[in-house]
Description:
alpha/beta, Rossmann fold, N-(1-d-carboxylethyl)-l-norvaline Dehydrogenase, domain 2, 2 domains, 5-stranded parallel β-sheet, 3-stranded mixed β-sheet, 44% helix, Mannitol_DH, mannitol-1-phosphate 5-dehydrogenase activity, Mannitol-1-phosphate 5-dehydrogenase, NAD, Mannitol_DH/Oxidoreductase
Amino acid sequence: MTLQKLSSATLSSLDPQVGVPAYDRTTVSPGIVHFGVGGFHRAHQAMYLDRLMADGKALDWGICGVGVLPQDRRMADVMAAQDCLYTLVVKSPDGTLEPRVIGSIVEYLFAPDDPEAVLARMTDPATRIVSLTITEGGYHVNQVTGELDANDPGLAADLEPGATPGTAFGLVVEALARHRAAGTKPFTVMSCDNIPGNGHVAKKMLTAFARLRDTELADWIDAEVRFPNCMVDRITPVTADSDREALAERFGVEDGWPVVCEPFTQWVLEDDFGGVRPAYEDVGVQVVEDVEPYELMKLRLLNASHQALCYLGYLAGYRYAHEVCQDKLFVDFLLGYMTEEGQPTLPAVPGVDLEQYKHQLIERFANPEVRDTLARLCAESSDRIPKWLVPVIREQLAADRGVERSALVVASWARYAEGVDEQGEPIEVVDRLRDKLVERAQHNREDPLVFVSDRDLFGDLVDDERFVTAYKASLASLHERGARATLEDLAG
């Protein structure tokens, strides 16, 4: 098989098994600027637009990707080398691979090299949406107060008089300021991150940031800019060298950064745009009036369950999500968490059978082809646990319902953050608060409440006797008997 380096010039000569854009990409023009072009965006929002374009629609809604972080330079290089093309490989549990080249990204700008080019693209009248996948931590939310944490050095630098913006927030607010000054219609800001009320959070934080710069600008953003909420779902593990090799060996495609994902995909989007938008509903997006029930379902069942399996699974010796979810002891624990603690905090979810959804989640987690690493799920926990699991604990306590499983999840994070697994092997803790977390966790044995005494992460949970009792018992068991025996005790 002849190896073809992916580019516009080689599309027509790729293996017929590889789907390619059926539309003329030279007719596609940018209409969306997207910050944070990682695997998830390329497996999700960019894929839906590619579907629309394949139907001859949305050709004026091409994506201009933007990178702002130093590590985004690698994506810029790959995008430049491949004419912004990449291969999306859907991996089914039976081993079937379905590769498709996605063509909806038509431009990529690396902001540190030319911030003015990014601002020019955002102020172009053709840009009607600016979308974000900048991770949970990218919104600079103080976990306890819910207000903007303006201590970030990047934000502080962007607020200096005459500064050239270097952060996503700085660039978006400067572009909006230019729209206001010119009297032109602003773009819609569409957050696609895993945050409860992501549109509300984006509006609150961006407006608060703008207010530090110009009160009138902040008032204008508050009144004129739309921030729809949405819920996004597709398991998209980090691309591995083995994924590149499989694409080359089985299909003859040399792709510097393909994306792999599961077959399942869901996007629930609030119809709250400042102007026209792509006809997302034509390709399976659920466009609704209220996203919150779907969002809470995903955050408290899927996302919180990822946290429920990752630390315990890692401590027990597993390294992939599918390994954990092929072990009945862990599956029973996950279903117990979802049924007894997560689900009771949910409102009714229109059109969704929650019993079916919970078992479908286990099936998705157990897909051996996706090979989602526990290390990925354990990363950046300080941005995840406070948003996904702590609200469940609070609601359960307020309603006088059980928190034993949730407390065990928090205890397993504390035990994981000690930096050594049950076999005595080092754990690489990946978190923006790593130093603080590890320092606290290493005192877990002499002070079992030291980890959850961090009020920036847990608020006043340490003052609640029911939670503290369950948490201390779980942490002691993890230390004395290990993860597996702790789960066996819970099951018994």
